[in-house]
Amino acid sequence: MAEIGTYNKGRILIVDDEPNSLRVLSAILDEEGYDVIVSGSVEGASSAVNTADIDAVITDLKMPGGDGMQFFEYLSEVKPDIPVIFLTAYGTVESAVGAMTRGAFYYFIKPPDYLKLKGILARAVAHHRLKREVDLLKSRLSDDSRGYRIIGSTPEIHRILETIEAVKDSTSSVLICGETGTGKELIAKALHYRSLRSTSPFMTVNCAAIPKELMEVELFGCEKGAFTGSVSRRIGKFEEAGNGAIFLDEISELALSVQAKLLRVLQEREIERIGSNKKIKVGFRLISATNRDLAEEVKGGRFRDDLFYRINVIEIRVPPLRQRKDDIPLLTAAFLNECCARQKKAVTLPSEVMRALLHYDWPGNIRQLNNVIERAVVLAKGGKIAFRDLPAEFLPPPKKTICHTSMRTLRELEIQAVRETLQRCKGNKSKTAKMLGISRKAFYKRLREAEKLDAPLSRQALPESTGKFEYDRMEPAAHQLNSLRIPVIYYDDREDSVQDADLERLLSSKKVKMFYRYSEGWVTPMTGALRGSGGSYSGPDRRTGGTVTDRGSSRRGSSGAGMQSRHFEG
User: What distance separates the 2 farthest-apart alpha carbons in the chain?
Assistant: First the structure.
């Protein structure tokens, strides 16, 4: 049998014991774009039908080890929807009539008219695909009537649907894993109602909602008088399910004692009601679901490992909605139609709202999406869903308005920050620089730039305190003098500086060249004396008109350079 290739126009199985016939026909069909599988015997053809998705079969009538008619009868039982075309060198009118009356799609005598064969084959493939689509639509309509339609077109959903079709008629237990709100119960119902058990009961038990003291009664039932308050016989879910299915939702919440009893039921296929020794045979199929990692629960000792292997024969993992966002438009359309019919409203959903739904991560999955759509339909006005109808997390961020400050340069914003912080610190420059997180040198640089932008300072603009001016408050005056080419006056911010009258006199005097601030103290313009930790100073004495001399060995002026002697000229 040839290797299965790419699925194009259709997948065709050719069955013939003549190698030349196989080679010629497969080459013609391969050139037409078909995916061709060849087999030289009925046994090989039967295996190919069971392992590959075949759209049509072309078979010889007489072959060693089984003829084409036997293979046709086998196909009629296992794959009745696959069209069969007979191609034989031993054809008779009787054999052709017999094949056609039994349901063959066409009958050719070797060598066939290959042009006609290609036309008949194309019709056969189209017929098969159409029948499959009709069956799928019927299945979906049946699902809709029962309320468990699975919506989605992503590869993840296709894999789940394929698994359901493969295991629906099996008796093996199924474990459905996924986050809360992903539709695990919907998949359980699809498993049951598409199976041969669909006419039997489907029982649902939420293991997280029933107290553990009552769980055994819920599952196994009880006899009258089995315990206090048991006034009548009660049939449990296992017994009530009969030959149907029982769905244990959130099975990880079962107590360990109940897990042990459930394991025995699955092994022995029989139960005992509480208060009775009579064994009752059960034939239900178990479908379980959990939003936890049961393997981790087993490692933590919260779930029995033997029960885990018993219920996890077939596992179906349901992806969260954030991993299948391509299905959101389909789900939204379905929920919108359902809610509009229920609320008797005609509402549409704009594309910008749909984009918001697509960009959301949906922690509550499909259940949350359904609730959001229902809320929007109820609140919608004017026949259209707006952002105001959605929860707050879906609202678009407010538009940023451009204020005046955003149009300023970065340097201007820095200067404004310096001014405002200096004002909050009441003129204290050390505190201001610390709050801004910059050095004193950088702070003074920003301050000088600020004063260049401002109008010339006036006497009234200088901040006043009670009878005195502090160093930090007098710095603007010093910089104003500097702008007038008068040397800068420096004052220390560790103590009060000069009297109000002294400052006014200094500002009006153009003879002043410089007053130095030392790290050990500061100089008063009245006496020129250095206050601080000692030492002498040479400078003007405003009261006597003389000179005060400093003999300190290493004083630092405003420039930071060491100096042996300084003087001031009056």
Answer: 148
pLDDT tens readout for residues 182-232 = 999 999 999 998 888 888 889 999 999 998 888 999 999 998 888 887 778
pLDDT of the residue at 219:
94
Which residue type is seen at 557? G
Q: 448 and 487 share a domain?
A: no
**Rounded-to-integer distance, Cα 111 and Cα 433, Å:** 101
Q: What is the DSSP letter of 488?
A: P
* CATH number of the domain to which 335 belongs: 1.10.8.60
- CATH number of the structural domain spanning residue 261: 3.40.50.300
Contacts from 110-118 at CB under 8 Å and sequence distance 24+? 110/21, 112/87, 114/28, 117/85, 117/87, 118/28, 118/29, 118/32
Q: Give yes or no: residues 182 and 300 share one domain.
A: yes
Is residue 1 one of the residues assigned to a domain?
Answer: no
Domain count, the chain: 5
How far is residue 42's CA from residue 253's CA, in Å, rounded to a whole number?
A: 52
Q: Going by DSSP bridges, is the β-strand pair 530-531/522-523 parallel, antiparallel, or unpaired?
A: antiparallel
Regarding whether 173 and 72 lie in a shared domain, the answer is no
pTM for this predicted structure: 0.50
pLDDT band at 407 (very low <50, low <70, confident <90, very high): low
Paired strand residues for 59 = 15, 86
Alpha helix (H) residue ranges in 147-225: 155-167, 184-193, 212-220
Helix residue ranges per DSSP H, 147-255 = 155-167, 184-193, 212-220, 237-241
90 within some domain: yes
Does residue 297 share a domain with residue 186? yes
> What are the residues facing 384 on neighbouring strands?
348, 381
Residues 218 and 171 in one domain: yes
Helices 212-220 and 256-268: angle between axes, nearest 10 degrees = 10
Q: Is residue 294 within 8 Å of residue 248, measured between CB atoms?
A: no
In degrees and rounded to multiples of 5, residue 156 shows phi and psi of -60, -45
CA-to-CA dists, residue 140 to 134, 168, 540, angstroms? 10, 15, 106
Cα separation of 182 and 190, whole Å?
14
**pLDDT tens readout for residues 340-396:** 999 999 999 999 999 999 999 999 999 999 999 999 999 999 889 999 999 988 876
Q: Which residue in 154, 91, 114 sits closest to 104, CA to CA?
A: 91
Domain end (from 301, 319, 337): 319
Whether 104 is covered by a domain: the verdict is yes
What is the SS3 assignment for 306-373? HHHHHHCCEEEECCCHHHCHHHHHHHHHHHHHHHHHHHCCCCECCHHHHHHHHHCCCCCHHHHHHHHH
Q: How many CA atoms within 13 Å lie on the side-chain side of 314? A: 19
* Full residue range of the structural domain in which residue 352 is found: 324-394
Q: Is 515 helix (H, G, I), strand (E, B) or coil?
A: strand
Q: List the CATH number of the domain containing 90.
A: 3.40.50.2300
Residue 5 is assigned to a structural domain of this protein: no
Long-range contacts at 213-217 (CB < 8 A, ≥ 24 apart): 215/254, 215/255, 215/258, 216/258, 216/261, 216/274, 217/274
